[in-house]
Write a structure and sequence with these properties.
It contains 18 helices and 14 strands. With 416 residues, it is an alpha/beta fold. The longest helix is centred in the N-terminal third of the chain and has 17 residues.
Length: 416
C-alpha cells in the first residue's frame, strides 16, 4: 500500500490518501483553515490510528466486493474491514474467503485511490489460509490494499496465537501488517475478571506494540452478555454495564503515556429510517446559526441524532474514530473528527511552553493549563493532521452539509 506522494495546492497525485479528498478544491478551501495532510504510513501508530476515522465494515459475501470497496473509497471512506465473522453465516465462510482473496487481487491488479483495508477472519487460525492464498505465483506481491487484520473475540487465552499468526503472515507476504484486536470477551465484560484480563491483555499487546494499530470495542457482544440491545434513542453510554466495560478498557489500554493505545469507538448499529421521527436532543442553536434547519431535520429523519450524540460522547470518554456498518454514517464521524479553529489554537497555546502554568485561551473563554492539558493538545494535533482544522465560524454542520451533497462544483475532478 502506497500512502504518500507529492501533492500541490490543487489536489493529490495518485497513490495518496487524504481525508475529504473527494471534495473539490474550492469546497475544501472554504471549509478548512488547515487542510488535512496526506496520510503517511510512517506516522506514529497513534496518529495513523486516529486517521482511520469511520471504519466501515462490509460483508465478505458481496459478489461485487472489489467494486463496493472502490465505490466507498470514492465517497470518502478511508478505512474498511472485509468481514468474515459476524456478517456471514457459518456455511458461507469458504465462499466468503474466496471473495475476499479475489477482491484483494482485483484491487492489486487495478489499483485506484488507496485506502486502509483490513480483513476480519472468524478466528486467527484462518489467517494462514488467507495469507497463503494471497501469496501465489500469479500474485507474488502483497495486494497494496491489505493493511492488516482485525481479530474478533481477542482475549488473553488466544492473544499469543492471534498476534503470532499476523506476524507470520507479514513475513510470508513481505510487508508490515497491522493488528486491531476487538475486546468483547466475557473475561473483559464481567467485573470480577475484568482487571486481571485487561492487565494480561496490556502485557500481550505491549509486547507486540509495533504491530498494534488500535484497540476496538465489540459493544454488541458486550451488551449480548446481559441480553441487552440498546434502543436507537440511547447511546452506548446510557447502557451502564457497557459503559463500565468501556471505562475499564480505556483505563487500562487508553492511557496517554507510553503504555497506552488508541481505542476506537464502538459500532452504531441503526440504519436510517425515513418513516420514523423522534424528538432530537441535539441543541438547536448551532443549526440555526448555520442556517441549516432543514438539513438538521433530514439528519433526524435518518436517525442521525443518536449517532451524533454518541460520537461526541466517544471523544469525551477517550475514544477516537468509530466502527460503522452503513456508509451514511461515515460523514458524521469525519465531520466531528475535524478540529475546530478554537480547539487548534488552544492546543497550540498549550504546546507553546513546557514549564507549566495557566494561560487564557486566545478565544478569551477558558483557561488553558499547560501541564494537565498537554496530552489533550497532542491528540488535537494528531487529529488536525488527519482531518484538518476548520475555518473560524465553520461548524460540523457545514462539513456535514458539504459531505452529504457536495454538488458538481464541490466534487473532486480529474485535475484535482
Amino acid at each position: 500500500m502506497t500512502t504518500t506522494a507529492r501533492h500541490d495546492d490543487t489536489g493529490l497525485e495518485p497513490g495518496t490518501i487524504r481525508h475529504f479528498d473527494h471534495l473539490g478544491f474550492a469546497t475544501r478551501e472554504q471549509l478548512f483553515f488547515r487542510q488535512p495532510e496526506p496520510i503517511d504510513d510512517t506516522w506514529p501508530a497513534q496518529r495513523l490510528a486516529i486517521a482511520l476515522g469511520a471504519t466501515l465494515y462490509v460483508p465478505a459475501t458481496r459478489p461485487d466486493l472489489a467494486d463496493v470497496i472502490r465505490k466507498r473509497r470514492a465517497e470518502g471512506v478511508i478505512s474498511m474491514v472485509i468481514d468474515l465473522e459476524d456478517a456471514i453465516a457459518d456455511h458461507e465462510e469458504d465462499d466468503a474467503i474466496e471473495h475476499t482473496v479475489a477482491a484483494l487481487r482485483d484491487i492489486a491488479e487495478k489499483p485506484g485511490d488507496p485506502m486502509l483495508l483490513f480483513v476480519r477472519p472468524r478466528s486467527a487460525d484462518r489467517i494462514p489460509r488467507i495469507a497463503a492464498a494471497l501469496d501465489t505465483p500469479s500474485a507474488p506481491n502483497t495486494p497494496p490494499a491489505l493493511a492488516g487484520f482485525v481479530i474478533p473475540k481477542f482475549n488473553s487465552a488466544n492473544a499469543d496465537e492471534a498476534l503470532g499468526e499476523v506476524a507470520r503472515a507479514s513475513e510470508l507476504l513481505g510487508r508490515h501488517l497491522w493488528v486491531m484486536p476487538v475486546l468483547e470477551s466475557a473475561a473483559v465484560v464481567h467485573r470480577e475478571t475484568r482487571d486481571d484480563e485487561l492487565t494480561a491483555l496490556t502485557a500481550h499487546l505491549s509486547e507486540h506494540r509495533a504491530n498494534v494499530l488500535a484497540v476496538r470495542i465489540g459493544a454488541t457482544d458486550i451488551c449480548g452478555y446481559f441480553g441487552i440491545r440498546r434502543d436507537r434513542d440511547l447511546t452506548i453510554y446510557d447502557v451502564r454495564v457497557a459503559a463500565d466495560v468501556i471505562a475499564g478498557i480505556v483505563n487500562h489500554l487508553g492511557r496517554s503515556d507510553e503504555s497506552g493505545f488508541i481505542v476506537t469507538g464502538p459500532v452504531w448499529e441503526y440504519f436510517a429510517d425515513h418513516e420514523r421521527m423522534f424528538q432530537p436532543t441535539l441543541r438547536h442553536t448551532p443549526f440555526r446559526e448555520s442556517d441549516a434547519v432543514y438539513f438538521r431535520q433530514q439528519l433526524v429523519s435518518r436517525d442521525m441524532d443518536g449517532l451524533l450524540r454518541e460520537i461526541t460522547l466517544d471523544r469525551a470518554n477517550g475514544l477516537h474514530g468509530k466502527t460503522v456498518i452503513h456508509p451514511a454514517h461515515v460523514a458524521a464521524v469525519h465531520a466531528l473528527s475535524a478540529v475546530t479553529h478554537e480547539e487548534y489554537h488552544d492546543a497550540l497555546d498549550i504546546l507553546a511552553g513546557d514549564a507549566g502554568g495557566v494561560r487564557a485561551s486566545s478565544y478569551r473563554n477558558k483557561m488553558n493549563e499547560l501541564k494537565p492539558h498537554r496530552n489533550w493538545a497532542l491528540r488535537v494535533i494528531d487529529r488536525a493532521a488527519a482531518f484538518g482544522v476548520t475555518r473560524q465560524g465553520v461548524s460540523f454542520v457545514d462539513l456535514l452539509t458539504a459531505l452529504a451533497d457536495p454538488g458538481p462544483a464541490g466534487r473532486r475532478t480529474a485535475t484535482q
